[in-house]
Each structure stands twice: as C-alpha cells, then as structure tokens.
Amino acid sequence: MNEIVAKSSLKADAPEWFPNNSIMTQRVDSLSNSLQNRLKIHKRHGNDSNHSQNHSAAAIPNIDDDIKRLKQIITTLSRDPGQFDNLLDIFMETLIPYFNDLMTLFTVAKILVEEAITDPNFRYSGARLCFHLEQNCPEFRAELPLRCEKHLLENRNMHNVLLFIAELYAQLPHVAVYGKLLVDSFKRLLSIGGNENVKCICQALKLTGYSLEKSNKNDLDEVFEQLENIKNAVGGNVTTLLNTVINLRYSNWGHSGDSTDSEYEIDNHVYEGVTNTVFYQPDGNVLTNEESEFIASYMHSNEEYASDNSDPDDLCDPEPEMDEEIQAAFKEFVKSSKH
Length: 339
Known about the structure:
The chain has helices spanning 2-7, 20-34, 38-45, 53-59, 63-79, 84-95, 102-118, 123-136, 138-154, 158-171, 175-192, 195-215, 217-229, 237-250, 261-275, 289-301, 303-306, 324-337. It is mainly alpha-helical. Among the domains are: 58-154, no CATH class; 174-256, no CATH class; 271-301, no CATH class. α8 packs across α10 and α9 (138-154) runs antiparallel to α10 (158-171). InterPro entries: ARM-type_fold, MIF4G-like_typ-3, mRNA_TranslReg/HistoneTransl.
C-alpha cells in the first residue's frame, strides 16, 4: 500500500475540481437567492399610494446592476438554453420594478432584440422571454414590434432580423402585427433576389407558413407566385429548400386536411380557455403559464382516448402467430387479470 501511495501522482493539497455544469447551476442559484425578496417588495409597495416617494425609490434597485444581470441571463441562455426554466423567474423579478419606466423598457427591448439578431443561439429563448414579459407589461408589448420594424429598415443583417420576427410570430398571440412585418419583408427580399434571400424566406416560411395561411393568405399567395417564378433562377441547396417549402404548402404545411377553419377556431377557443384558467398545485402555489399550456395541450392530445367507449381489452391485439385456441386463452387471461 505504501508503495502505491509513493508512486501515485495524486496530491492531497490539489485544488478541488467541479464539473462545468455544477458551476453554471451555482451561478443560477446565486442569482435566484439574491432576488427572492424583490418581487415581494414590489407586490407589497408597488400599488400603495400612501408610501413616500423616498421609500419607493429605496425599493427600486439600481438599474445598472439589473441591466448587467439581464445581460448575464442572456449569456447563460445562449450557452445553455436548458436553463430557461431556472432563469425565467429571475428574469421577471429583475424587470418587474421597471414596468412603469418607459425608458428602461425601451432599453430592455433593444437589448433583447439586438442579442436575438446577433446570436442565433439566443433567438428562440429571446422570443420566449419576450412572450412572458409582454404578457405582464403592455408597454413592452407595444414597443417590441416597433423595435423589430426599426431593425428591418436599418440593420444590415436583415436575415437574422426576419428569422427572429418569425420566432415572435410563432410564439406570440397577436399574429397580425408580426404577420405584416413578415410578408412585407418577404416581398422586399424577393425584389432584391439572390440565393441567400430566398433561403431566408424559406426558413421563415417553414416556421410560420401554416399560421400565415390563415392570417395573411392573400399576401402569401403573392409571395408563392413569385417563388414559383424564380425557381429556375436559384441553385444548389436553395433549389431543394424552395421545392420543399412549395410542396409543404401543397400538403397544408403537414397538417391534416380534415380539419376545418371552424374546428380550428373551436380548438383555439378551448385552448385559450384552459390556458387563461388559474390552476393550483397541491401545495397551493399557482401553476406557471408554461405548466398551464402543457395541461391544455395534454387535454387536447387525449381527446381521442376520452371519447373511446370501446372495450379496453380490444386494444390488446394478440400475435398473428397464435392459433384460435391460444388467442381465446390469451383474451381470457387478460380479462381475469383485471380482477
């Protein structure tokens, strides 16, 4: 044993090693612990007109620190989108004190949009953050499309701007505003032409085409007419992508052709009714928006089973290799096992 210890390269005084994931978790926990009381302070004093101005000012944290924290959250989500659920509450708690501060909200919108445009890894998470933020802040909801439109006109990287707007269109409930931005951008890129512009349009359509078919059908007809006309003008992988999108539209964007508009409206109404209902956990805490949305989608996906009045034993299909005697014995076994 002494000989093994003598030859070992391990040292008792070596620094302790932690995997990268544990360091990331520690950072998230640290952020969460530092902000636990802020939402309580805002709820307690935010709408109380009897509090003095000095006390209210003291309750509002330093904006520079919170902007720095916002950027830290964005950096973390860009590297590890799986941390979204852990960081969402921290994100909201950080910004709640500024819901009545238009200048700060404009800054937040600017940061979120610019980061989502610059870093494609943050695009999806950025749209999700915008969804949760605008649900609670009408001022942010009004500023966000204006900020996107500004970038469409001024930003050199119009492709990334368009793809971020496509994410917003797919995730936010008011499709009309972002739908108009999308189709106007499609037409603008088509007027310029080129493989990269067509590629960007096709990428956005794969994400938004089915919904645009319902909200902006006439504009979409015009866009696809132009896409059909330029099929021979593009080349390489773009040709394949363009044909894929055209065929996707012919197949109703991968959705069943049996569903009608009225059925869609009914399903959407039921879905909104469930997601707008307040659900509670066994411990009395309110379910989050995402948990409520999961319940709505889960209920919808199980309708066929809820309406199935057939014998559950019929779901058990014996192997075709069984002869009739063995199949009968198998069914008898299934029935007896229920008792």
